[in-house]
Structure formats: C-alpha cells, structure tokens
C-alpha cells in the first residue's frame, strides 16, 4: 500500500487548526488521514493541542457600584474584616480585600489590631464576645474575679474568660487589708485569745 504524502496545503490546514479545532472537525478538514495519522504528523511538525477556553457565558461577574466603592473608601480604615463582610455581603472577603488594594486603601493600627485579635480568637476556637458580655466582664471581674463572673457568662469557658481578661487588661481589685493591733490572752478555767484588727485604707 502506497504511503500517503502530505501536501503543503494539508500541512497548512493542520498547522492553522490543530491547536484548537475539535478532533472530529480535523478529520473533516483532512479526510485522507485517520486521526492517528494526523496526531503523528502534528507531533513531527511540533504542534500541540491547547485546551479550549472556557466560555464565560452564564457566569455572573460581580461589579462594584460607585456607591459601594465610595462606601468602602469611607469606612475601610476604621472597620474590621468581620464588619466589612456584613456591610458588603455581596462580596467574598478576598474580593473586598482585593478591591481595597486596588483603591490604595489601608487600615489604621487599631483596626489592624482588632483584626489580629479576631483572627486569633478563631484559631483558638473562641466564640465572639458580644458588647453585653464584655460589659459584664469589665464591670464584675475587678470585684468578683473569674469565679464571680463565670456564672454570669454561661456560654464562655474559663479559658476564654482568662484570655479576654488579659486582652482587656483587667485587674482584680485587692481586698480589704486589716492590721493586727494587739492580742490578749486569758488562762483561767478556759484558755482564750482575743485579737484586735483594724482595717487599713489603701
């Protein structure tokens, strides 16, 4: 059986179509050759197929409105990531950060610190503290300590309370101080000791 030779025209067809044209279409364009022969020739010519580009049809691209961009510019510096996600709930967190970078926005030091604390809380598995819970801790911890506030914060573990105390810089107030002013002994029929203490204000 005589070997089929490729004409220059067929080579041009292969060269111009091999990368993207579907296999069945190549066979229509080059009817004298099987798909195996077409692949062998393409390899000899250094041609490679490329994956077809995915159609973007049906993909909804979310675009920022001018009002949303203005709002982001207004609040970004002083708003935590969690709050931004609530304000711009149409977008994913990485989309918000990407838009902020494109606008040249940065957060101030205090907001960055809050973001770091929130991130650490998630790492430690802590649930988020509400403002009411923080107020209870701030108001009650100095006078009652952890044992006093744990019943007031049933959703918080001792570990979580301790961590929050440290972050808020809370200190337990020192209790009353009493000074020994003297002792009297009695050794009659019943041995007794009488101690006198005086409260010292600090």
Give the structural class: mainly alpha
Strand content: 5-15%
Shape: elongated
Average predicted confidence as pLDDT: 79
Query: Strand order within the widest sheet?
Result: 1-2
Q: Helix tally?
A: 9
Relative helix content: 40-55%
Gyration radius, in Å: 39 Å
Notes on the protein architecture:
There is one protein chain. The protein has about 200 residues and is mostly helical. Among the domains are: about 10-45; about 65-125, no CATH class; about 130-170. Helices cover about 50% and strands about 10% of the residues. The protein contains 9 helices and 2 strands. The chain has helices spanning about 10-15, 25-30, 35-45, 65-75, 80-85, 95-100, 110-125, 130-150, 160-170, and strands at about 175-185, 190-200. A two-stranded antiparallel ribbon has the order 1-2. Helix 8 crosses helix 9 (about 160-170).
Summarize the structure.
The protein has helices at 8-17, 23-29, 35-44, 66-75, 81-87, 93-102, 109-123, 131-149, 158-168; strands spanning 177-187, 191-200. The chain is mainly alpha-helical.
């Amino acid at each position: 059986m005589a070997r089929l030779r490729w004409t220059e025209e067929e080579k041009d067809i292969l060269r111009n179509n091999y990368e993207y044209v579907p296999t069945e279409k190549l066979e229509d364009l080059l009817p004298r050759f099987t798909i195996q022969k077409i692949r062998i020739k393409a390899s000899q010519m250094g041609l490679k197929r490329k994956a077809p580009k995915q159609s973007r049809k049906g993909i909804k691209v979310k675009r920022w409105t001018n009002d949303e961009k203005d709002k982001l510019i207004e609040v970004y510096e002083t708003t935590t990531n969690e709050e931004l996600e609530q304000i711009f709930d149409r977008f994913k967190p990485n989309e918000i950060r990407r838009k902020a970078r494109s606008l040249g926005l940065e957060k101030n030091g205090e907001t960055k610190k809050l973001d770091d604390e929130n991130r650490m809380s998630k790492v430690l598995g802590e649930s988020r503290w509400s403002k009411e819970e923080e107020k209870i801790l701030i108001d009650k911890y100095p006078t009652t300590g952890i044992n006093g506030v744990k019943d007031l914060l049933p959703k918080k573990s001792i570990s979580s309370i301790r961590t929050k105390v440290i972050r808020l810089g809370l200190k337990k107030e020192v209790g009353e101080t009493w000074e020994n002013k003297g002792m009297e002994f009695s050794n009659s029929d019943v041995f007794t000791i009488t101690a006198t203490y005086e409260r010292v204000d600090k």
